[in-house]
Amino acid sequence: MPAAPPRHQIPAVPHLIKLSVGPRDVDQLRAIQARRMEADPPLRHQTRMVPKRAAEILSADGSIYWVVAGFVRVRQRILDIRDEKWDDGTACAGLVLDPALVPVEARPQKPFQGWRYLAPEAAPPDIRPGAAEARGLEALPAKLRRELRDLGLL
Fold this sequence. Notes:
There is one protein chain. The chain is 19% helix and 31% strand. It is globular, with a radius of gyration of 18 Å. The chain has helices at residues 26-39, 54-59, 142-150; strands spanning 15-19, 44-47, 63-68, 71-85, 91-97, 102-108, 115-118. The longest helix is centred in the N-terminal third of the chain and has 14 residues, at 26-39. The chain contains three helices and seven strands; from the N terminus they run E-H-E-H-E-E-E-E-E-H. The mean pLDDT is 88. A hairpin with a 2-residue loop joins strand 3 and strand 4. The protein has one domain (15-150).
């Protein structure tokens, strides 16, 4: 009996991943977002491209995973994705975010443009609240991680 032909499967992609340009650490990201939320609520991140799979992201309680200083560090739930305009009138997408920054196990991430979809199985796991001991790369001092990354070892 011949083998069944492989079925084309569209991977489940309820998450996005994005570089956080500017902040050198999560505390700076948190401070920037707090100022934005106070000045122009609700908290959102504007991006040029609207995710074509927005309905899937929203229905699956998707998150945006932030790359801070070369490492995926935190995530935020995406509460809504809506059409918006930048100050110059150019259309953009507004990702409405839950203000809570959820720490995740740090993973190195090379730079890329814009945002990317992130499959659930590729997303780093959350760090449990109150976890006393850092694991993996997170256990290394920040300076050492930077030096290893600069040497191309991470």
